[in-house]
Amino acid sequence: MRNLMLALAALALAACQSAPEAPQSAAPEPALDPAAVAPGPAIIDQSVTITPPAKGVPAKYAAFSGNWAGRLEGTSEGKLAVQSVSSKGEVTVTYAWGILGDNNPGEAAGAGKIVGTTLKLGRLPNGADVSFAMLPDGTLAATNTLAGQTYTGVFVRQ
Where is the signal peptide (predicted)? Predict the structure, then answer.
């Protein structure tokens, strides 16, 4: 019985003890680096559909059809859905962007035109001018000019 009482007393004493405090550093907490904050995502509405190019659409235009995704300046996510392509290089698109400069994520539906190997979109509602040049490896070199800044990146077919 005495051993049982000693065991219970030891258990109660151990439960009352707290863990030692971690030594505190005299250095202040580092400030949050804005570059370390994850950019907002680019989101295209799930209802956006792709209409395959008709048989009369030249291959150099048809190559733009489909869903594309990439990053501008390695950080800002972008998505492009080339929904339709005409035989004259006219396209309908939906373009979505993540945080870019002072601009919040957004999405815009619109039109554009392919001239040579470059798809140029009409000016976006946020004031951006966006174009995509088809590269020999089948990727798109994206250029986004917004508020006097130019952002570039590579988009790949999804």
Answer: 1-21
In a domain, 11, yes or no: no
For residue 39, what pLDDT is reported? 52
Rounded distance between C-alpha atoms, residue 77 and residue 106, angstroms? 11
Separation of alpha carbons 30 and 9, rounded Å: 45
CATH number for the domain harbouring residue 43: 2.40.128.120
Low-confidence ranges of the chain (pLDDT < 50): 1-38
Domain extent, residue 93, equals: 39-157
**66 part of a folded domain:** yes
Confirm if 130 and 142 have CB atoms less than 8 A apart.
Answer: yes
For residue 73, give both structure tokens: 């300046």
Looking at residue 31, what is its pLDDT? Answer: 33
* Cα atoms in the Cβ-side hemisphere of radius 13 Å centred on 146: 21
Structure tokens at 119: 């798809």
Count of domains for the chain:
1
Residues paired with 157 in a beta bridge: 68
For residue 142, what pLDDT is reported? 97
Q: What is residue 149's three-state secondary structure?
A: strand
- Nearest CA among 110, 150, 112 for reference residue 128: 150
